[in-house]
């Protein structure tokens, strides 16, 4: 055996050793459960179940509460993600300008990210209760009250909490993207007499595209995590408008309906995978376009 | 002119910053209210006032500054409610092992993914990343069954073990390691150092900032855990602080603000102390390898 081949084999062996602790635990606590879940979703019971094909999926898809949960999740993600992207891009631009106490301002925007959801629930109740502060202000403006958490307005509350919590994360990413654009591009454009809007579209936006793809992806994933806040404010059965897929799965778990739960989970995973691959394809196409 | 613009922009952004900080400011200032004043201001939460029946149309009285500054709430939480400190300690006992375990396990695996060549490397890494994206509920049932089989139900290990093997650490440390040039490692290889030696004496010192960033992000994520303890820890005596607070909001509203402040303070202090690591960690996870 020549030394090169021996070297390669040694590296392979080393990789196995380095990976072993992680792989063992990862398989037990993530891969194996995931595969088992998939198996359950095509069986009739969890213990010695027989194969029933897509029956469970059919049951889930025709269930009213699943449809409600799925459309709510879609609505929430579809509205809140574009909104948070626009807002965080705007704030990143502003924070990238000349400002006093810029570091402090940035800290303020990122701070909500580290504040535990449970410690701020009381605050949301005070703001959005029927007798809450928001309604007091609205009454003051002669606008009448809304029972925020028990009406369609509840989804607005969730969108607001989601943006409040996650906008800082996106601002950080966009700021890094903005600061990595070489300054001389703008200088060249200035010499050629390009307007602000033109510069933004043809330099800033083009160079921010990879960052944006990543931010959109992270925002979608974080939009699923708003369940924690919803749960803490509104419990197992919130108003219809904010009954999300996670509520559905949680309740299926509590009622021990494993088949429906695993089928719903598999559907959600498929949706996420489709989304992720679409985003990555978009990015790849953009990269080849740039080259 | 430029100065005026700068000032105006600062004022506008300052206003937005204040909105962002508003919930924390209120929580902090109200934690110095006496219980009686809390009750007076906030007793209307969750009540339906029937205006038609002649009841007065009242609102919750959101107050920034208490009439009397009092340490009642803190005394109540820290001295008269032993459960609070107990659950605080539970949180610590869950979060610390997860951080130490995940940083160690992830550093080893990330080294293999970033700097060693083996068959199927990219594919395996994609599998890791995919699990990172899934909501917790997706593997809820199988996880529950596995915890049962391993005899972990109602023990904090049911949360700690999956926490240690979470994919996020592997993902982030790999991103950091990709930025370390091969040349550093080659030099050691020529000197006859094996992979373990290279990892230990060259890679580890270089990715210290990465490990610090990971520590901060993991702390934030797990200190805030709600779903997992809710499912895996039925025994209230073993539950972490997050669940204490979700219960206190219903019952003992009088001490909720002080309890919240005590719960969020470790996070905020850590964040202010290690903000640059926190931000670097987020930015690194955004850079494609």
From TrEMBL, chain A:
<dbReference type="GO" id="GO:0005886">
    <property type="term" value="C:plasma membrane"/>
</dbReference>
<feature type="transmembrane region" description="Helical">
    <location>
        <begin position="205"/>
        <end position="224"/>
    </location>
</feature>
<keyword id="KW-1133">Transmembrane helix</keyword>
<keyword id="KW-0812">Transmembrane</keyword>
<keyword id="KW-0762">Sugar transport</keyword>
<keyword id="KW-0813">Transport</keyword>
<feature type="transmembrane region" description="Helical">
    <location>
        <begin position="12"/>
        <end position="32"/>
    </location>
</feature>
<dbReference type="InterPro" id="IPR051393">
    <property type="entry name" value="ABC_transporter_permease"/>
</dbReference>
<feature type="transmembrane region" description="Helical">
    <location>
        <begin position="261"/>
        <end position="282"/>
    </location>
</feature>
<feature type="transmembrane region" description="Helical">
    <location>
        <begin position="155"/>
        <end position="176"/>
    </location>
</feature>
<keyword id="KW-0472">Membrane</keyword>
<comment type="similarity">
    <text>Belongs to the binding-protein-dependent transport system permease family.</text>
</comment>
<dbReference type="InterPro" id="IPR000515">
    <property type="entry name" value="MetI-like"/>
</dbReference>
<dbReference type="Pfam" id="PF00528">
    <property type="entry name" value="BPD_transp_1"/>
</dbReference>
<dbReference type="InterPro" id="IPR035906">
    <property type="entry name" value="MetI-like_sf"/>
</dbReference>
<feature type="domain" description="ABC transmembrane type-1">
    <location>
        <begin position="70"/>
        <end position="280"/>
    </location>
</feature>
<feature type="transmembrane region" description="Helical">
    <location>
        <begin position="74"/>
        <end position="95"/>
    </location>
</feature>
<keyword id="KW-1003">Cell membrane</keyword>
<feature type="transmembrane region" description="Helical">
    <location>
        <begin position="107"/>
        <end position="128"/>
    </location>
</feature>
<dbReference type="GO" id="GO:0055085">
    <property type="term" value="P:transmembrane transport"/>
</dbReference>
<protein>
    <submittedName>
        <fullName>Multiple sugar transport system permease protein</fullName>
    </submittedName>
</protein>
UniProtKB/TrEMBL annotation, chain B:
<dbReference type="InterPro" id="IPR035906">
    <property type="entry name" value="MetI-like_sf"/>
</dbReference>
<dbReference type="GO" id="GO:0005886">
    <property type="term" value="C:plasma membrane"/>
</dbReference>
<feature type="transmembrane region" description="Helical">
    <location>
        <begin position="7"/>
        <end position="26"/>
    </location>
</feature>
<keyword id="KW-0472">Membrane</keyword>
<protein>
    <submittedName>
        <fullName>Multiple sugar transport system permease protein</fullName>
    </submittedName>
</protein>
<keyword id="KW-1003">Cell membrane</keyword>
<dbReference type="GO" id="GO:0055085">
    <property type="term" value="P:transmembrane transport"/>
</dbReference>
<feature type="transmembrane region" description="Helical">
    <location>
        <begin position="254"/>
        <end position="274"/>
    </location>
</feature>
<feature type="transmembrane region" description="Helical">
    <location>
        <begin position="125"/>
        <end position="146"/>
    </location>
</feature>
<keyword id="KW-1133">Transmembrane helix</keyword>
<feature type="domain" description="ABC transmembrane type-1">
    <location>
        <begin position="88"/>
        <end position="274"/>
    </location>
</feature>
<feature type="transmembrane region" description="Helical">
    <location>
        <begin position="158"/>
        <end position="177"/>
    </location>
</feature>
<feature type="transmembrane region" description="Helical">
    <location>
        <begin position="88"/>
        <end position="113"/>
    </location>
</feature>
<comment type="similarity">
    <text>Belongs to the binding-protein-dependent transport system permease family.</text>
</comment>
<dbReference type="InterPro" id="IPR000515">
    <property type="entry name" value="MetI-like"/>
</dbReference>
<keyword id="KW-0812">Transmembrane</keyword>
<keyword id="KW-0813">Transport</keyword>
<feature type="transmembrane region" description="Helical">
    <location>
        <begin position="198"/>
        <end position="220"/>
    </location>
</feature>
<dbReference type="Pfam" id="PF00528">
    <property type="entry name" value="BPD_transp_1"/>
</dbReference>
<keyword id="KW-0762">Sugar transport</keyword>
């Amino acid at each position: 055996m020549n030394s090169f081949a021996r070297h390669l084999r040694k590296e392979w062996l080393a990789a196995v050793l380095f990976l072993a602790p992680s792989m063992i635990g990862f398989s037990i606590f993530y891969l194996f459960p995931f595969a088992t879940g998939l198996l359950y979703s095509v069986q009739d019971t969890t213990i010695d179940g027989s194969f029933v094909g897509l029956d469970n999926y059919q049951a889930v898809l025709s269930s009213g509460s699943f449809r409600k949960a799925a459309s709510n999740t879609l609505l929430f993600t579809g509205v809140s993600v574009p909104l948070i992207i626009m807002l965080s891009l705007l704030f990143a631009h502003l924070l990238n300008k000349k400002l006093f106490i810029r570091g402090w301002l940035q800290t303020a925007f990122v701070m909500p990210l580290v504040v535990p959801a449970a410690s701020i629930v009381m605050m949301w109740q005070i703001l959005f209760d029927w007798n809450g502060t928001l309604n007091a202000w609205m009454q003051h403006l002669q606008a009448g009250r809304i029972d925020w958490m028990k009406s369609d307005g509840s989804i607005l509350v969730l969108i607001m909490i989601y943006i409040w919590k996650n906008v800082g994360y996106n601002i950080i990413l966009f700021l890094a993207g903005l600061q990595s654009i070489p300054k001389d591009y703008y200088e060249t454009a200035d010499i050629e007499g390009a307007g602000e809007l033109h510069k933004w579209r043809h330099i800033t936006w083009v160079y921010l595209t990879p960052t944006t793809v990543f931010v959109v992806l992270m925002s979608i994933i974080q939009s699923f995590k708003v369940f924690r806040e919803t749960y803490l404010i509104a419990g197992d059965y919130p108003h219809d408008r904010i009954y999300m897929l996670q509520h559905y799965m949680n309740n299926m778990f509590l009622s021990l309906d494993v088949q429906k739960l695993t089928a719903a989970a598999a559907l959600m995973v498929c949706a996420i995978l489709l989304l992720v691959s679409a985003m990555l394809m978009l990015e790849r196409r953009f990269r080849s376009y740039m080259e | 002119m430029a100065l005026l613009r700068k000032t105006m922009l600062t004022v506008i952004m300052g206003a937005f910053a204040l909105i962002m900080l508003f919930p924390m400011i209120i929580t902090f200032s109200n934690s110095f209210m006496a219980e009686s004043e809390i009750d007076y201001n906030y007793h209307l939460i969750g009540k339906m006032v029937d205006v038609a029946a002649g009841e007065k149309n009242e609102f919750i009285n959101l107050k920034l500054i208490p009439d009397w500054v009092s340490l009642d709430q803190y005394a109540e939480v820290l001295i008269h409610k032993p459960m609070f400190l107990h659950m605080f300690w539970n949180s610590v006992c869950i979060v610390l092992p997860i951080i130490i375990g995940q940083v160690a396990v992830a550093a080893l695996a990330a080294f293999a993914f970033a700097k060693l060549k083996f068959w199927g490397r990219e594919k395996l890494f994609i599998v890791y990343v995919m699990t990172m994206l899934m909501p917790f509920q997706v593997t809820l049932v199988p996880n529950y069954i596995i915890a049962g089989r391993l005899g972990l139900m109602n023990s904090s290990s049911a949360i700690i073990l999956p926490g240690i093997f979470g994919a996020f650490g592997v993902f982030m440390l790999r991103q950091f390691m990709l930025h370390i040039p091969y040349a550093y490692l080659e030099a050691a290889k020529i000197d006859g150092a094996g992979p373990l030696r290279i990892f230990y004496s060259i890679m580890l010192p270089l990715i210290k900032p990465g490990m610090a960033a990971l520590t901060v992000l993991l702390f934030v994520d797990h200190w805030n855990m709600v779903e997992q303890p809710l499912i895996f820890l039925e025994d209230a005596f073993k539950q972490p602080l997050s669940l204490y607070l979700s219960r206190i909001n219903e019952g003992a509203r009088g001490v909720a603000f002080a309890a919240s402040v005590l719960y969020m303070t470790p996070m905020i202090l850590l964040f202010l102390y290690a903000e640059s690591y926190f931000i670097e960690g987020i930015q690194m996870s955004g850079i494609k390898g």
